[in-house]
Design goal:
The protein is α+β, with helices and mostly antiparallel strands. The protein has two domains: 62 residues, no CATH class; 71 residues, no CATH class. It contains three helices and seven strands. β4 and β5 form a beta hairpin. The longest helix has 27 residues.
Length: 139
């Protein structure tokens, strides 16, 4: 990734978070307003969507700036839990796995552990065999 682009993305994140923080009370108050006109209803929906996507954007920019801190291999224990380098991954653990995409090209994919009865990697097929998959964690 181009360093200048990353610098600009971090600046966007910083400025966007400053704006959200500065107007947080006003934004929240408007979103909670009960009696609204038809126009205000639309504005409220758009503001909520902007706030939601803005925070997602800021999180993604932050994630892109993190370094890989661990690399290893996935497997399952006898209870079906997903393990990274032999350590059980708690639910909602974020990691990246190296897999073949639909065109058979090897790619890194960002996923997280999920499930109730059977633990799986959210973002991939639930029945994917994780044993031996190359994985890494950013921090």
């Amino acid at each position: 990734m181009d360093k200048e682009l990353m610098k600009d993305l971090f600046e966007l994140r910083k400025k966007g978070m400053e704006v959200f923080d500065k107007y947080e009370d006003q934004i929240v108050g408007f979103l909670r307003k009960e009696k609204v006109t038809a126009e205000e209803s639309l504005q409220r929906d758009l503001l909520f969507e902007m706030y939601q996507y803005g925070n997602t954007l800021f999180d993604l920019i932050e994630y892109m700036g993190k370094e890989v801190v661990q690399e290893g291999v996935l497997d399952r224990d006898e209870k079906g839990n997903i393990r990274f380098n032999g350590k059980v991954m708690p639910l909602m653990s974020e990691l990246e796995v190296y897999i073949a995409d639909k065109t058979d090209q090897k790619v890194w994919v960002r996923v997280f552990t999920a499930g109730e009865d059977k633990i799986y990697l959210a973002g991939l097929t639930k029945d994917l065999d994780v044993n031996g998959l190359k994985a890494r964690i950013r921090g």
